[in-house]
Amino acid sequence: MIGRIAGRLDYRAADHVLIDVRGVGYLVFISDRTMANLPGNGEAVALYTDLLVREDNLQLFGFTSLVEKEWHRLLMGVQGIGAKASLAILGALGPEGVSKAIALGDWHALAKAKGVGPKIAQRAAIELKNKAPAVMVMGGDALDDDDIVIEDDAPAVPVKARKAPAKANPAQGEALSALVNLGYAPGDAAAAVAEAMTPGAATGDVIRAALKLLAPKG
């Protein structure tokens, strides 16, 4: 499997881009959110990728983080959600937003994505809820052992200009791990962390806020 490619952004269309790697152009489908965060044409770019194999077609899908890539894989496993719907969900919510929605069982958030109806959103929230803790603690820079990395060894721009795939706030995974180590059930801990997370939050702050949410009521 092609796990990551890095090269020069040749052109962009409505739902995909062409990345030139050593003279070979790779067509990669991406979400609206990922598209908005890419550099300009002719600049260096790197994306994690997932290869979809069909009888009559091979398609590459690109992601800025391994968390986003993993949610794509999991969403694609839900009946009624294909690649287009998965990218719509990720484009609408982002990987952190999907983690929060799944952990909290908030199917209404999932249903806001274009082409995703209430029934499919509810099914995804139920089927994937137990997957949320594992995805939320994933690192942002490790590849699967079987993934192939395709790099451009002659970049068109200086190396310092390369944009590395974005990483999720490590506070999310660190706080979740800490709560599980304290004896909280992974599902409960994931829901509390998802609710407690704020942009740029420090690990200690997330843990304290999550503990308050997990405290017995009354």
UniProtKB/TrEMBL annotation:
Residues 1-64 are annotated as: Domain I. GO terms for biological process: DNA recombination; DNA repair. One of its GO terms (cellular component) is Holliday junction helicase complex. Pfam families: HHH_5, RuvA_C, RuvA_N. Residues 167-218 are annotated as: Domain III. NCBIfam families: ruvA. Homotetramer. Forms an RuvA(8)-RuvB(12)-Holliday junction (HJ) complex. HJ DNA is sandwiched between 2 RuvA tetramers; dsDNA enters through RuvA and exits via RuvB. An RuvB hexamer assembles on each DNA strand where it exits the tetramer. Each RuvB hexamer is contacted by two RuvA subunits (via domain III) on 2 adjacent RuvB subunits; this complex drives branch migration. In the full resolvosome a probable DNA-RuvA(4)-RuvB(12)-RuvC(2) complex forms which resolves the HJ. The RuvA-RuvB-RuvC complex processes Holliday junction (HJ) DNA during genetic recombination and DNA repair, while the RuvA-RuvB complex plays an important role in the rescue of blocked DNA replication forks via replication fork reversal (RFR). RuvA specifically binds to HJ cruciform DNA, conferring on it an open structure. The RuvB hexamer acts as an ATP-dependent pump, pulling dsDNA into and through the RuvAB complex. HJ branch migration allows RuvC to scan DNA until it finds its consensus sequence, where it cleaves and resolves the cruciform DNA. Has three domains with a flexible linker between the domains II and III and assumes an 'L' shape. Domain III is highly mobile and contacts RuvB. This is Holliday junction branch migration complex subunit RuvA. The lineage of its organism: Bacteria, Pseudomonadati, Pseudomonadota, Alphaproteobacteria, Rhodobacterales.
